[in-house]
C-alpha cells in the first residue's frame, strides 16, 4: 500500500485577495473573538499572506517584533494590534453581541 503524503495546512497560502483577507479576519473575529491569542494568530496569518516585512514597516514595527507579537507566545498590546490591523488595510468594528 502506498503511503499518503500530507503537508501542513497554511491558511496564508489561500488568502490571495483583499476580500479573502477581510473575510478571513471577519470569520476569525466571529469564531474566536474573545480569545486574544486566536485573533493575534489570525492577524499573523494575514500578515504572512501579505508579506511580513511590508506589514511591519506599515505598522512601524520591526519584522522580528511583528513575528514575536503575533506568535503563540506573544502578548501584543492593544495598540500594537490596532497598528497591525491598520497596516493590513482592515478595520476593527463593533456590533451588538448575540445572546
UniProtKB/TrEMBL annotation:
<dbReference type="GO" id="GO:0003677">
    <property type="term" value="F:DNA binding"/>
</dbReference>
<dbReference type="InterPro" id="IPR010982">
    <property type="entry name" value="Lambda_DNA-bd_dom_sf"/>
</dbReference>
<dbReference type="Pfam" id="PF21716">
    <property type="entry name" value="dnstrm_HI1420"/>
</dbReference>
<protein>
    <submittedName>
        <fullName>Putative addiction module antidote protein</fullName>
    </submittedName>
</protein>
<dbReference type="InterPro" id="IPR001387">
    <property type="entry name" value="Cro/C1-type_HTH"/>
</dbReference>
<dbReference type="InterPro" id="IPR014057">
    <property type="entry name" value="HI1420"/>
</dbReference>
Amino acid at each position: 500500500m502506498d503511503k499518503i503524503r500530507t503537508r501542513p495546512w497554511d491558511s496564508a497560502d489561500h488568502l490571495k485577495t483583499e476580500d479573502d483577507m477581510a473575510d478571513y479576519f471577519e470569520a476569525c473575529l466571529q469564531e474566536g473573538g474573545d480569545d486574544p491569542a486566536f485573533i493575534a494568530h489570525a492577524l499573523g496569518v494575514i500578515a504572512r499572506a501579505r508579506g511580513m516585512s511590508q506589514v511591519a514597516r506599515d505598522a512601524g514595527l520591526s519584522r522580528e517584533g511583528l513575528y514575536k507579537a503575533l506568535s503563540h507566545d506573544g502578548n501584543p498590546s492593544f495598540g500594537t494590534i490596532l497598528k497591525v490591523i491598520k497596516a493590513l488595510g482592515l478595520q476593527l468594528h463593533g456590533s451588538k453581541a448575540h445572546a
